[in-house]
Design a protein that fits this description.
The protein has 121 residues and is mainly α. The chain has five helices and no strands.
């Protein structure tokens, strides 16, 4: 999460290719599919480090939305259900959001995610 945006910010020129050059293989039991509460601290650290380096409000908004998506991904992948509320509280503090608002938004996100997953393929 931290390396790629940092490289973009340090680049003088960036070129894009409209071609798939890599393939992701996923394993539902892998370590990347199991989130920990400390992942929230890692994302918060990266976000706080990057947001001060970004000069335009448009890029800050994009980073903010990516961080929220990453946080929700962590929430969806926390294996211990009882830790979700604690994780939500940490995220609310990190983003300076009202906890009730965050829980409502997360509930909608979770429902949409489960719906998409159910009807995928």
């Amino acid at each position: 999460m931290l390396l790629t945006p940092h490289l973009y910010l340090q680049s003088k020129k960036i070129f894009g290719l409209n071609k798939e050059l890599y393939l992701y293989r996923t394993n539902e039991n892998s370590i990347t599919k199991t989130a920990k509460l400390s992942d929230i601290d890692d994302v918060s650290y990266g976000y706080n480090l990057l947001k001060d380096k970004i000069e335009t409000s448009k890029l800050r908004r994009i980073l903010y939305l990516r961080v929220i998506k990453h946080y929700f991904s962590i929430l969806l992948n926390i294996p211990i259900r009882g830790e979700v509320k604690l994780a939500q509280e940490k995220i609310a503090v990190s983003l300076n959001l009202n906890i009730i608002f965050l829980r409502c938004i997360y509930f909608i996100y979770e429902v949409v995610f489960k719906f998409k997953k159910k009807f995928k393929g």
